[in-house]
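Q: Entry one of two.
A:
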Amino acid sequence: MENDTENNKSPARFLIIAPPREQLDSSNHGTSPG
């Protein structure tokens, strides 16, 4: 169970940092990189 949480935390962190960062860049630029 402990391994599952740690493994899930790794990908989750990347996924959470990726979407917001891209969205912020899109909002700032006004255009999505696609």
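Q: Entry two of two.
A:
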Amino acid sequence: MKIQSFVLINWSASSTRSNGQHSDHSPVTGIFRIKGLFVNWTPFVHFTFPNKDSLGDLPTVIETPLILAFHSPIYHLSFQTKPILGPPREEDPSSQSGALLSFNTDSSLDPSAKESPSRPRTTIIFIALILLTCIALSAAFAFAFLFYSSSSSSSSSSAAAHNVSRPLKKLEKPVVLLISSDGFRFGYQFKTSTPNIHRLIANGTEAEVGLIPVFPTLTFPYHYSIATGLYPAYHGIINNYFLDPNTGEAFTMASPEPKWWLGEPLWETLVNHGLKAATYFWPGSEVKKGSWNCPEKFCKFYNGSVPFEDRVDTVLSYFDLPSSEIPVFMTLYFEDPDHQGHQVGADDPEITEAVARIDRMIGRLIDGLEKREIFEDVTIIMVGDHGMVGTCDKKLIFLDDLASWIEIPAEWVQSYSPLLAIRPPPGYAPSDVVAKMKEGLESGKVENGKYLKVYLKEELPSRLHYAASDRIPPIIGLIEESFKVELKRTKGKECGGSYGYDNAVFSMRTIFIGHGPQFARGKVPSFENVQIYNLVTSILKIQGAPNNGSSAFPVSVLLPSQ
């Protein structure tokens, strides 16, 4: 039995376990710490139990005095439930704890009541109440000392048991389901009621302040970076749209030719190891590349009209196949809340409803897995691909305003916002173009000019890893959060949302939640999404392809195997 906190109302102490850290008592002003138990003196004290049946589990040596105190006429005991971190079984994070012992005074002790003619009797009652309270206080300390000392050995062995991954109960081999919710900015899970997502968080691992996307923080570069563990400069998808500098061919989000897609994505890695993978709308998965031929049974070509419910049900149906036919790696993709974010920005009721819809899909998935009795066996990794920030027409920078220093024709510009990319034609030195643009932007004569910084790509901050590919134009402009670049002024007005900014901008962060046998309960420091490739191959116990992630990263996040 684990106790989350204690409270004995009217003088005693409230306590809370401190992240599993145990230490000998050390006095702090008003607080005593005894083996992970914080005893805080307050006017009111309560004991909180996991459930009403816990009393029977208390150590026999202290059961009698506690029960006597609880059942005296001046105390009232009520029980509710609360999830306790530690046990390996799943628990519902929505339940809250409030078990409390309340002190009820007799009306004869009310100062506003008429003074009793029998003062000796009143004095005796008052002394009796004080003595009873002292007995209860003593019982509280006895409980604290005896419970923790009696459970220290068992809790130590239990903690040791929980420091390794849980064994599979029904599935014969590990299965990883990778879910992407497009445009799910970190923080959306707190602004909207998301009980199902929070169930995964409460019983799994969460990136503490979000997952850091690769630069540029755009949908296709991001998703393919997760799939390959490579930065965009190395896997080739350097933007959602771009031109091949050698052939002039255009890449779009509908380009299936393998020549664009470099590196080895997870589904190809799985097939190389003789394993099965199933992909549902993950960017790049439709490309027939290497050993991956996008099998009709397990590879879905993108179709935005497919209801979210059908996508979840299709993934669940894979678990109904014979054990040897179940794919060990699956992907699932939802367009929301990105679709709404483009139109209304990050703060709007439409975003709230979109996030709630994603949460319902996660609930549908959990229900389906639980009905098959495999929820605790399946590893679920839920991510977004980027954040979102509001933009409006008053935050615009016009390239035409630079005409006094340099004219930039539309055909030079391969993307405007939020990533400005310029490829001058032969005869124009990129360094000269950058110098003239900087002169104009820093002159104070270009509206909002100070919010655009232009670089030769090789001079970009190295943390962006955005220089090694010839597909990247030679001139890159980093735009301040919420601002946009356009070629010329128009009468049109636009307010909405955007992304693609510097990945150091916090609003670009998204979520990472890992739930499954190898994920401990708690939070880990934020990390870049290129680490997920090695995380998946580690869970599946296969050797991955060379990538930009750290081979040591999975050890810092996953529980060791038994």
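A: Comment on entry two: The chain has three domains: 13-162, 175-378+518-557, 394-492. The radius of gyration is 30 Å.
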